[in-house]
Amino acid sequence: MRNYWDYIKVEELLSLQGGFDNDESKLSNDEVVFIVVHQVYELWFKLILRELETARDLFRQNPVPDMKLANAATSLRRVVALFEQAVPHFRVMETLTTRDYLDFRDRLIPASGFQSAQMREIEILLGLDDNLRIPLGREGSYMAALRSSDGSASPALARVEHRRESGPSFKTVLYDWLSRTPIDGPATQESAERFARAFIAGHEKEIENRIRLAKQNALTPDDIARLEQRYRAEIKFAERFLQAEDEEGLDDEARAFRRRLRAAIVFLESYRELPRLAWPREVIDLVIAVEQQMIIWRQRHARMVERVIGRRTGTGGSAGVDYLDQTALRYRIFNDLWAVRTILLRKPSVPLLSHEDEYRFRVED
Ligand code: HEM
Ligand SMILES: N[C@@H](CC(=O)c1ccccc1NC=O)C(=O)O
Fold it and tell me: What DSSP letter does each residue of 114-131 carry, written as one string?
């Protein structure tokens, strides 16, 4: 007969909180809290990975079926909800006082959350650039930290190695998809760059207007000079960003790709009321929401760590909170999506489209 305990595997699940010696009777409530909070996180990470993989596989198609964008949004919305649920969960860990935790902490050395394979898988699947990674301080790379203490392979290492080899990152396939956006006409380099030029002109006009208003309301001549300098820097940023002149070492093809990508993001954000652009824009907004939640997760973990162990060295050998604060600040994946929000224009200032009708609903025959 079908029953709850056989489906949820309750007995097996409740037998997994015994720590290194698999004997929960030897553990304090504090240590069982420590273990259970981690296990709950790993289950949230499991669900996040499933949804990110579904979204990645969807965008891996070329063309990406428009009818499937709603499914991608559903997966990404669930990832946001999972992180939003996981972040406050650190509150349970904060019921541990520093002294309570120190009662069993030394026995954990050198184990660390730095060895959470699924967190690494989430970073890899999203597309975190390895060049951004901050060394832990003990090993050459984050992959080395996944080896057993005698240097042998581990299930965690196998899991992460498999993820690294299991296809392109979500960022890669999403950016490829965006670079194929038909911008005010055909999906060509020329139409992308023509739109970018028109947008830059609109941006410059809007900023000039803001400088004029600032001059009318500024307090002192120094204020005017400072504000004008800032606004002119914004104009320069918009030009360099849309012409992809802000990145060193790009060859012509890579620079042309960056220009198509960035023009597409600006285009989707600027005309999102056009029906055929609505879902694509919803997707890129959800990608920002996912990355925002991941940054908040890192921050919330670091504040919990600071509350529980202060700024002492981590069991994994890192500088502890100082290391964690750096990763929260530096680990960014979707910089292009975030940067566009600096240059978007008010609706009256965006360029008029020549092929607006092509973005209205088409009656599929
Ligand atoms: C009392 C609770 C905790 C403390 C004191 C703590 C402390 C630390 C410290 C100091 C590090 C830096 C690496 C090291 O030197 O060990 C770290 C890394 C990490 N911890 Fe925790 N942690 C705690 C709970 C958790 C929980 C519940 C999770 C959930 C899975 C977690 C996940 C991670 C991850 C994924 C990293 C690697 C972060 C990165 O490299 O960006 N930690 N933790
Ligand atoms: N790195 C933590 C120890 C720790 O939190 C931990 C130890 C074993 C297994 C998971 C852990 N969680 C996160 O790092 C610390 O320095 O206290």
Answer: GG-HHHHHHHHHHT--GG
Residues in the chain: 365
Residue of 324, 325, 326, 332 with the most ligand 1 atoms within 8 Å of its CB, for mutation: 324
Taking the whole predicted model, whether its pTM rises above 0.90 is answered as yes
Q: Of 80, 82, 127, 103, which Cα lies nearest the Cα of 34?
A: 103
Per-residue b/e over 64-103, b at no fewer than 16 CB within 10 Å? Answer: beeeebeebbebbebbbebbeebbeebeebeebeeebbee
Contact between residue 96 and residue 30 where contact means Cβ atoms under 8 Å apart: yes
Residue that the structure tokens 């553990």 belong to: 27
Does this complex have an ipTM over 0.85? yes
Give residue-wise pLDDT tens across range 321-340. Answer: 999 999 999 999 999 999 99
Question: How far from 262 is each of 52, 58, 196, 330, CA to CA, in Å?
Answer: 23, 21, 9, 21
Is 314 near ligand 1, meaning CB less than 6 Å away? yes
